[in-house]
Amino acid sequence: MVVVLLNPGIFKRRDGKGFNLRMNENKTPLSRQQNASVKDVDGGESVLEVGFARDWAGCDALKADGTVCGDWVDTRHTKICAYHVDHQLKRARTNRQEYNVG
Hints:
Blueprint: E1 2-5, E2 9-12, E3 19-22, E4 31-32, E5 41-42, E6 47-51, E7 56-58, E8 72-74, H1 82-95, H2 97-100
Antiparallel strand pairs: 1-6, 2-3, 4-5, 7-8
Protein backbone atom coordinates (compact mmCIF):
# COMPACT_ATOMS: atom_id res chain seq x y z
CA MET A 1 0.00 0.00 0.00
CA VAL A 2 1.29 3.46 -0.88
CA VAL A 3 0.19 6.26 1.42
CA VAL A 4 0.77 10.00 1.50
CA LEU A 5 1.41 11.82 4.78
CA LEU A 6 -0.35 15.16 4.61
CA ASN A 7 1.26 18.10 6.45
CA PRO A 8 3.64 16.21 8.75
CA GLY A 9 5.75 18.10 11.26
CA ILE A 10 9.37 18.03 10.06
CA PHE A 11 12.06 18.13 12.75
CA LYS A 12 15.84 18.00 12.49
CA ARG A 13 17.42 15.08 14.30
CA ARG A 14 19.49 15.88 17.35
CA ASP A 15 22.58 14.23 15.87
CA GLY A 16 22.27 16.51 12.81
CA LYS A 17 21.97 13.62 10.35
CA GLY A 18 18.63 13.72 8.59
CA PHE A 19 15.17 14.53 9.87
CA ASN A 20 12.10 13.01 11.52
CA LEU A 21 8.47 13.28 10.52
CA ARG A 22 5.87 13.64 13.24
CA MET A 23 2.14 13.25 12.73
CA ASN A 24 -0.54 14.65 14.98
CA GLU A 25 -2.76 12.03 16.58
CA ASN A 26 -6.12 11.93 14.87
CA LYS A 27 -8.78 10.65 17.24
CA THR A 28 -11.80 11.37 15.05
CA PRO A 29 -12.85 8.49 12.79
CA LEU A 30 -13.27 8.95 9.08
CA SER A 31 -16.97 9.68 8.66
CA ARG A 32 -19.31 11.89 6.71
CA GLN A 33 -21.87 14.08 8.38
CA GLN A 34 -25.46 13.87 7.25
CA ASN A 35 -26.39 16.33 4.51
CA ALA A 36 -22.71 16.99 3.79
CA SER A 37 -21.09 17.03 0.40
CA VAL A 38 -18.33 14.58 -0.54
CA LYS A 39 -15.66 17.22 0.18
CA ASP A 40 -16.75 17.61 3.81
CA VAL A 41 -15.07 14.65 5.47
CA ASP A 42 -14.26 14.59 9.20
CA GLY A 43 -11.20 12.71 10.46
CA GLY A 44 -8.57 10.83 8.49
CA GLU A 45 -7.07 14.05 7.18
CA SER A 46 -3.46 13.11 7.95
CA VAL A 47 -3.04 9.99 5.80
CA LEU A 48 -4.20 9.42 2.24
CA GLU A 49 -4.09 5.98 0.59
CA VAL A 50 -2.87 6.37 -2.98
CA GLY A 51 -2.48 2.83 -4.24
CA PHE A 52 -0.62 -0.44 -3.96
CA ALA A 53 3.02 -1.20 -4.88
CA ARG A 54 3.35 -4.80 -6.03
CA ASP A 55 7.17 -4.68 -6.11
CA TRP A 56 7.60 -3.35 -2.56
CA ALA A 57 7.77 -5.92 0.24
CA GLY A 58 9.49 -6.82 3.49
CA CYS A 59 12.88 -8.53 3.76
CA ASP A 60 12.54 -12.33 4.08
CA ALA A 61 15.76 -12.86 6.07
CA LEU A 62 15.70 -13.87 9.72
CA LYS A 63 17.30 -11.77 12.46
CA ALA A 64 19.58 -13.31 15.09
CA ASP A 65 16.63 -13.64 17.47
CA GLY A 66 14.64 -15.65 14.91
CA THR A 67 12.15 -12.97 13.86
CA VAL A 68 11.70 -11.80 10.27
CA CYS A 69 13.70 -8.67 9.38
CA GLY A 70 10.87 -6.85 7.56
CA ASP A 71 12.94 -3.95 6.14
CA TRP A 72 11.51 -2.68 2.86
CA VAL A 73 13.03 -4.01 -0.36
CA ASP A 74 12.32 -3.72 -4.08
CA THR A 75 11.32 -7.28 -5.01
CA ARG A 76 12.14 -6.73 -8.69
CA HIS A 77 15.82 -6.97 -7.69
CA THR A 78 15.98 -9.01 -4.47
CA LYS A 79 13.93 -10.36 -1.60
CA ILE A 80 16.63 -9.69 1.01
CA CYS A 81 17.72 -6.26 2.26
CA ALA A 82 21.24 -4.88 1.67
CA TYR A 83 22.25 -5.41 5.31
CA HIS A 84 21.57 -9.16 5.19
CA VAL A 85 23.27 -9.54 1.78
CA ASP A 86 26.42 -7.82 3.13
CA HIS A 87 26.28 -9.86 6.33
CA GLN A 88 26.10 -13.13 4.38
CA LEU A 89 29.00 -12.08 2.10
CA LYS A 90 31.17 -11.32 5.15
CA ARG A 91 30.36 -14.73 6.61
CA ALA A 92 31.22 -16.45 3.31
CA ARG A 93 34.54 -14.55 3.07
CA THR A 94 35.66 -15.60 6.53
CA ASN A 95 35.08 -19.27 5.66
CA ARG A 96 37.28 -19.18 2.52
CA GLN A 97 40.96 -19.88 3.00
CA GLU A 98 42.05 -17.51 0.19
CA TYR A 99 40.86 -14.53 2.25
CA ASN A 100 42.36 -15.77 5.55
CA VAL A 101 45.98 -15.84 4.34
CA GLY A 102 48.03 -13.12 5.70
